[in-house]
Amino acid sequence: MARPQSHPTPVLLGFGEFELDEANACLLRNGQAVALAPTPFLLLCVLARQPGSLVSKDALLDAVWGHRFVSDSVLKTAISDLRKVLGDDPKHPRFIATVSRRGYRFLSVSSSASSMPPADTAVLAASSPTLPSFIGRIAEIARLQRAWERAGGGQRAVVLLAGEPGIGKTTLIEHFLAGLGGIACARGHCMEHFGTGEPYLPVLEALADLCRSAPTLPALLREVAPTWLLQLPWLSSTQERDTLRRELAGVGPERMLREFGELLDRFTELRPLLLVTEDLHWSDRATVQLINYMARRRGPARLMWLSSFRLAEVVALEHPLSSLRHELRLQRLCEEVVLDPFSETEVADYVALRSASLACDEAFVRALHERTDGVPLFVSSIITEVMDVKEDETTIEARLADLAVPENLAAIIDHYIAKLAPEQRTLLCAAAVCGSDFRIETVSLALERNLTSVIGACEELMREQVWLTQSRTPDVDEAVELPYSFRHALFRQVLYERTPRSLRIDLHRQVGTVLERERSTGVPVAASELAMHFDRARLPMIALRYYAEAAEAALLHFSPDLCIGLTERALALLMQAPEGAERDTLEITLATLQGVSAFHMFGVGSKAKAAFERGYTLLVEVPEHPMRGRLLHGFGYLLGLRGDYLQALDVAERAEALSLNANDQELMLAACIVQGEVHHLQGRTKMTRSWLERALAIAEPLGIGTNEIFAADPQVMLHGMLAIELVRSGLIEQGRTHMQQARTRAHTLRQPMTWLVATWQEVLIEVRLGNSVRVAALADDMHKLVDEYSLALGRTACRWWRGWADARNGAPHDGYRHIREAYEEHTGLGMRSGASEVLGYAAEALQLTGDYDAAHVELQEALRVGEELGERVYLPQLLLLEAAIARAQDRSDAGNAAVRAAIEEARDQEALWLELLALIELCEYHDAVPADRQALVMLIDQLPETHATEQVKRARSLIEAANRG
């Protein structure tokens, strides 16, 4: 690979307060060495060699990076780094001017001798080797470089960079990046937050960063990672996002993990990627889970994921990263690099950046090391303090001896705070309230200060290189003023804590009000950020409104854990809000959202039920609540899954009454669906059909599809449910017609949860028809769908149906095991709906193994659970199974009684197909009398749609044989 060639005539140039000496590889400001990475330094030399002339982008890329493939963004980054060091404003340049879309121009020509540094300093620079801009860490950098080389070869690398505040984690990362040149790098930071952190925040920031430099990434997101595309709304239209939300309704958070893995696998096929996430001690749980997933993901990937964190905080706060780092290290799935404080030698090297003679003073270096414990930020602060010459007669050594060295970094920051002018301190306090990053417009409006003066103050603080820096590299000709950020998170943290409480409260109110106003003009401000500000401003009602909005947004972005965190904080805050209709309205909203989130995260357990009950109770006070449909349908559905059928019917009846009062068709539809589901499970065939037909008549003209109330398309759901009831009634062809309508619409909608529902309902039909081969195929289809889209609802059902099919297809032992394992997992989550039927599958599998005693025990458990729940939908089949077991045990009387009980139960349920099956069983194996055979003949004649089935063909054979006999 070609490398940039050095120029035969090195540059020696004075400009402004700077001197550039290419031969000695140094840049001086007022005689003092300036730390500058190799790439920006070479870039400066190339520009300075042609003062006043336009140097094109291509020429700069060739001169600095040779013939390596790098993008324009790499050049922009290097120019930005160079401008920061020179203190050059791109809008009002002194040294480097941007020529739009073409390149850059160096403005200064060689200055007079008066601008050169003092002679002694110049001699020092000329006579010594390159001044180090980075101290120590040779072994650590080498480890990072080896990890990057492994990643480049296709062996994914996860590297954790640990150390205490001020130890130099960010500096190490910066230096490592500078040495890699124009690589693909995505970088994100975790933020100190209030309560639950935003899921994947640093990763989303990194992806947004990568999208700016990798124009193919948005298309790849659309293709393989639509859930991540939704998290970056500026990459898609409103219509596209709405379509995606409908298609991805019901998708679990696990889907995001798999999509991210596929995204990076595909991206790194073209070029290696370095993903950097900093300050993981502030990370959310989802980001830690993602790191775990990527570390364990199989297959090659040219990816290095480098993350930094404060070791003590991760351990002390029992952060989820604490246990994960140990697990990954034990399994050799990650590498951990721990930064230690500077040694005396490294402290001396650092001092040499300011004074070569002082670095040779062993006593001074030893004293400095002892006073700072070798913490780099501590060393930097103290050396700046003692070399800030104010009194010429005092030696540096004396100033160090007299200096009251603070005991920790917080005390150092207190020292810097004390040096701030009152206006600077107020500005920085407001900035600290805004967060690690802040917009100067926001601070200006919050403090009611002139924008120009705030910009000037921020620029001055940035030039001091203590408090502020710019958040990101500006794009060429970017008109928007970029946000600023605190140079070190600890500075912002200490300043915020040192701000008087009353002032902090007032600043949160002012900042929140400004952000609210800016948001109304189109500035993107998250609802969670506004909630935090108004919460800390002691304005609970405003905070609660934004907490509710933020919680709903979290659900839309597949983050039920964040939604739970937000609603928990908000519900605790309710105690501070005045009683009244507005508080009740907000509480219903929050309780509903918490119930939906808890259902997604934990199933139908007590947490979800308690949340829904809280909202349901308050609905009496606010019957017109806009979220009542979501609350009532969600609560009714949850109760049905729990097997609390009577309570579910009460909820459905209340929904019906409210819908009639307000002429709310969606609410009526929800009521009808819950009624239909419960009556089906209770074995009321005709009543179920009545509710479903009523619901379908409402759903078809509404055409609402999936929304916040219905996770699956109502029409698909209703056609499938009606198909099951028609089959139970012996109307096989009509049932198949409705099932085909459900499948066709589900296929057209391309929405995973809707397709899952359609497949689920078709399986139930085929089970009732006894088609084990078809059930096996559908169960496998369902399993693939559940895995691909992380649909928690079908995770157990697909396994017990596959077990049912296996048992009937010749593998009853395996079938029983699959059924029982899925049942235990299902009921362990609190879901008891359909439990008697699944236990019936298990009993049948045992019967097929020939273990009739065990089958009898399992069957009795199924009957007991059905009685307990009031669940009769599968009772006729359970009674027929009891007859088969009794027959195998030579208990013919018991078998005959069980068959006749099955016939009576089927007639009571008005389930003519089940009655037909029971009559066939009676005529084939038990003591049927002529009246029984006559009843079978009449029933077959009554059900012409059953004539093509194998069961009816068998019945006709039995009748013919009886007639011959």
Automatic annotation (TrEMBL):
**What does the record give as the DNA-binding region?**
10-108
Q: Which GO terms describe its molecular function?
A: adenylate cyclase activity; ATP binding; DNA binding
Q: Which keywords does the record carry?
A: ATP-binding, DNA-binding, Nucleotide-binding
Which intervals of the chain form a coiled coil? none
A Pfam family of the record is AAA_16
**Domain OmpR/PhoB-type, first and last residues per copy:** 10-108
Q: What top-level branch of life does the organism fall under?
A: Bacteria
Report the record's Gene Ontology biological process terms.
phosphorelay signal transduction system; regulation of DNA-templated transcription
Q: Which InterPro entries match?
A: AAA_16, OmpR/PhoB-type_DNA-bd, P-loop_NTPase, Sig_transdc_resp-reg_C-effctor, TPR-like_helical_dom_sf, WH-like_DNA-bd_sf
GO CC field: cytoplasm
Q: Which PANTHER family match?
A: GUANYLATE CYCLASE DOMAIN-CONTAINING PROTEIN, TESTICULAR SOLUBLE ADENYLYL CYCLASE
Put simply, this protein is called: Transcriptional regulator
Q: In which organism is this protein found?
A: Pseudomonas laurylsulfatiphila
